[in-house]
Amino acid sequence: MSDEKPPQLVDYFVVAGLTDTSRPLEEESQQHRPARPSEPITDVAVIIRSQGEEVPHGFTCIETTTSGHPVDLNAGLLNNPQMFICYKRGRDKPPLIELGVHYEGKDRPKPGYKILDTTPYSRSANLNSGGPGHQRTFLTYRRAAEPHGHNTLGVTDICLVMPSKGESTPHTFCRVDKNLNTSMWGPALFLCYKIAMAKANTLVYEAGLLGRYPEQDSESFPLPESVPVFCLPMGATIESWPADTKYPLPVFSTFVLTGASGDKVYGAAIQFHEAFPRERLSEKQSLRLGLLSVVDRRPVAGRSLQTRKSICVLSHWPFFDVFRKFLMFIYRYSISGPHVLPLETHISHFMHNVPFPSPQRPRILVQMSPYDNLLLCRPVSSPLPLSGASFLTLLQNLGPDNAVALLVAVLTEQKLLIHSLRPDVLTSVGEALVAMIFPLRWQCPYIPLCPLALADVLCAPVPFIVGIHSSYFDLYEPPRDVIFVDLDTNTIFQSEERKLLSPRSLPRRPCKVLLASLHSLSQQLDEMYSGPGEEASLELLLSDAEAARGRRAQLELEARAAFLRFMACALRGYRSFLRPIAPAPAPAGRDAGSLFALQGFLKSRERAYHRFYGQLLRTQLFTQFIEDCSFASDRDPCLEFFDTCVDKVQAELEKPEDSPLMELDDPRGGEHTVFITPPEQPAGPDGTELPARYRYDGFPTLRPELLEPPRDPLVAQLCQARSSAPSSPAPRRTKQEMKVAQRVAQKYSSVPDMWAKCLLGHCYGLWFLYLPTHVRAAPAKLRALQLAYEVLRKMEAHKVVLPDEVCYRILMQLCGQYGEPVLSVRVLLEMKRAGIVPNTITYGYYNKAVLESKWPAGTQSGRLRWAKLRNVVLGAAQFRQPLRQRERRAAATAAPPGGRAPPAPRPSLQRQTTWAGRSLRDAPPAPRLVKSGSLSFPSNTHSEGGRGGLGEPPATRPPPLPVAPDPLPPRLRGPPGSADGSLSDISFATDESDRADEGPVGSGGPVGGTPRRGLAAKLQQLLSPGKRPPLRPAASTELPAGTRDAADAACPRRGSEQRDGEPLPRRGPAESLLRPRERPESTASESSVSLGSELDLSDTSVGSAGVPKSEPLADGATGQEPPAVEVLLSSCSRCQGCGALVYDEEVMAGWTSDDSNLNTTCPFCGRSFVPFLSIEIQDFQLPPSTAEDGSLPAPAAQGPVLSDRRHCLALDEAEPELCNGCPDAAVPRRLERVAFAYLSPLVLRKELESLVENEGGEFLAQPELVDSHPIIYWNLVWYFQRLGLPSNLPRLLLGSQHVAPAPQAQPPDSPCVRVRLLWDVLTPEPDSCPPLYILWRLHSNVPTRLRSWRPHGHPFSLAFLEAVLSHVGLSEVHKAIALFLETLAAPGGPRHLQRSIYREILFLTLAALGRDHMDIAAFDKKYKSAYNKLAGSLGKEELRRRRAQPPSSKAIDCRKSFGATLEC
Q1: Burial 1277-1304 (b: 16+ CB within 10 A, else e)
Q2: Which of 246, 367, 391, 582 could form a Cys-Cys staple with 559, CB 3.0–4.6 A?
Q3: 1421's torsion region: left (phi>0), alpha (psi -120 to 50) or beta?
Q4: What is the pTM of this model?
Q5: Inter-residue contact 958 to 1461 (CB < 8 Å)
Q6: Measured between alpha carbons, how far apart are the two ends of the chain, in Å?
Q7: What are the tens digits of pLDDT across the range 668-721?
């Protein structure tokens, strides 16, 4: 298993700039604009020509609008003062960066703005000076702060527009939305200005690669060749500055590269200037830069030469803030010094020794120097795709209305050109545009920061989203069919050729809610960033930056949720229009029209919005979305999350829902932080500090010998993720499915019956997680898949609460993997029948299985004819069964006393019976036909029935644990015990002639396929040990019925013939219970009748009706051979607080819905404790030598009394295995007892999913699972055995350290491990009082599994036991409880009992009567009624203190749902 590398923080470090091969960019063949201004505007003025004022020297007067109309500011006034605006350019002072209009008396002066209140000639500069009643209006401006660099942004142009003349704001200009003419007459006039970088003496070249680290490309991600041009999108420049010009600050920018597969790579770069040698320039270049005079070519003094460079990091993670801090540190390091360590050491240290934040260590604090550090936090866990989007930046730069307009543009696939003078804003806004349309994906060209070298994409005839620097428009004329989005002026420019749909075309209510949410968020942003300056700065100085960052993250989440809600409302109900691929799909099966009902979806929308939806359905966005929903892809978790959002939203509301669609899951609050120290400085030979010798004049060329330091092994261990084996994505639950399952568990934890079904659903989910491993090992793949399908049907029939769709999804994936598309269609139909709408992931696996699998031939006529012929033959065979039974009965009656009945021939055509098409959902046929036509008894017909107790109906068998699936007709479970739920089914024949003379079989018992044998034959069998089956230490009760049937087929039992005859005379419950006092000898035998399944509490349950009963057991021994290994499991746990024993159903009832909580709650003291699974492993691999045939001699003590007919009959009917043990079992060669935590199915599922994710599904079939993950292994064995689900897990025990190597190789199909599930403890406490059911067996001379119980030292005599049973039999349970309490309170009684009184009486009754003759549900009702009766006199608190309370309703429901298939 190959280990995968952990996520890498940084992939490449790149240095870009001017190279010898760089080509000039301004000499391209594109149409250039007129020469841009070389100097910014530094002053503005107002002149009044009517007063004789002239334009000042160096100023330019604006006399016309953009279209040539005169712009006299007071043209509408009677006394026209003829006022005009003038401006001046230069570099002698900081440029203007903003203009405005101030209404005196209405507006407050803005901080930083200066009001232009006088003209250069000291007159009032009021733009409306016509009279005293006019509004006083002044110009305002804001100047750049000192010091200013050569390339500082500033106002480069000013114009006036007159909307009444059809004029609009020029492109890239910012308009001041205040009318300069406030009089009643005259046209409205608005001031517009443009902000740009006024550059002069600049040469622009295409950027090239100057350096990189690492030098070699990685296999998974080679360095793209276009990275340098993205680092310097406006090119690598050579600029001539005045000698005294200060260096500008570095400019940070980000960009996104999209690979062919759609993977995004994020880049973060800073651009800076450094000196350029004049010697490298040609004469032509020097002339263009103004370094030489034009006439005599003399050098011009007072000029400096600079070039622009960039350093960049590439990563698959958008940690833009972290990368900005790192790059700024590297830049400052390069311009300072000298340093002890070279620059390359810090670069390689950051790339190699800074780990990627993991869930265990979500915070990485990197100390780069004593004064520089950065905090790296794990990305916010979100079901949405990872993105560098900032919706708040979008709102800050465009506002809510423009954001909604852009949403329409993106959904209808328009050509969008986003431009700004701030390159770092372009990527954030571009990412937000493609993220706001989730779940749709932008399929056309997308370049959020486009270099000049790639500007040709703007002429592409396809939709695109491109971001570009605003200086592009100073060089080139843009295309006319593009929608321009100016982030600096908050404007959208639409061309006449391409008009946007109005936001009114969107669905009204969702759009109204979206706008309201965005306006609210925009207002909160203004409050955050526009507070008083002193308070804002003080807040930052008081280290509230962390709180502000958290607040911003919350607002970011709300903005994204607002767009998500709109998309969920717009696409609501889309899943009902998906078309599943029909059988045998056509070649055009992937066409959107065949996958989605486009017209049906359009008609389901309101007619007013058909234009918008019509354009949306024709886009590539929607087509790809339908394909993603129809087929399995890596986007399935995201789409599944969107489906849950669709279910949550209510499109009719005009306000957001109360429950948020998204929740902030920010790991920054974690306590675990990894601290990364700076690189260690080397020491001298004497331990002294080495001198600082690294100093750089500019950013250096990277030296390879300094870029390869050894990696810190400790940090490598910290960041090393666990190896993730390639496993199928189908078993994985998405985070959304986990959250839904958690909410469902929390909801049902307070509802007793639903909590039991919820636990049961998670148990079945565990088995379906194991299903791929089971199918892979199964010899017949189709049978295994059909078995899983039958399990699904049973789960649906019994209303099991499934927490998710993983069960269906795994089966669909396996159907596709093994080429069974028909079964996949049946699974989908089963889902719909169960009312489950498949989510995107399940739907994708279904379509994949149907589309990629080979379908059977279309002609079915031959198969149908064979099916009809087979049914006719089978029907005739079924009609012959009564005749055969009559012959067998006659043969059995005529058999000699000491002989054996000849075995009937095995039924033929049984294979065809299983092919007749019956399924688990079908009702079972008549009992007579089922008995004769079933393969459940494939060997001798003596062992028909094969059940543990007398009179057990055929429907009360627990399910099997098959290993090789065989789709045979199942037996549905019937009511426990007798039909009427009473104890009157205990009946014994008093004479052999009575049975021979009785009529045909009645409805009270099962119909046998073999005649009954006489008493003499049975006694002969009892007295012939060589002909008896070996008394194995494994009881049949712990095995499913199919396993018992298989064992019975190879090993005839003494009690099987007794079941095949007529019904025996019945005796009332009182008579049955009082009989032990009269005849102790027959009591022992009588109680042994039902002890074959003594505490085999097979109840009418969901869990016990899981699979057919026809398959051989993977982990049970069959036939005459004893098992090689026997495992006893018990979940009975002792509370550490009160010492009481808590049984399985009580443990389940005490579990919580938290999938990380291992504790359960004690029902007696209320304390939490961790329950344990107790395991006893018995190794029988060396066969016992006591008998040649493997059987053991009869016990020496208390043999059968032949004169006591009832005693003999009881021994005849008894199973050879006994509850809590067996008589004189073979001694194991090796015995080991271990205990592991007993996990809730919710906890176990989480752990199993993690194991499969990390180790792969194949690990579940390896013996290493037992030793390396014992808790998971033993819990899986327990649950699978408990529900009767097939698995090969017990066989893995043979290769573990718990079992010694076998002396000889076992056959591959040899079933050599048997598992028994016990209800009570495996080992008793040394000084504890024996339970009543053990005392009953000791008094009755019935051997028990454990012989360490002390038969004396307690007040529970045989008379006491018989009195308790008598009260129970007479429905006087309150008297039994009172007698128990009196006995406990008597002197010499035990102070504390480990078992509750309810448990003692229940187990005693089961041991005396047998599970088959007792209705536990009826007993629970009687006990609860008796408890309520006693509570009136003794009080509930006293009864609880003495542990006399009945189990909770949640515990009872857990026992019913899981089935009480445990023995004691």
Answers
A1: bbbbbbbbbbbbbbbbbbebebbeeeee
A2: 391
A3: alpha
A4: 0.68
A5: yes
A6: 43
A7: 444 577 888 888 877 777 767 778 788 888 888 888 888 765 454 444 444 443
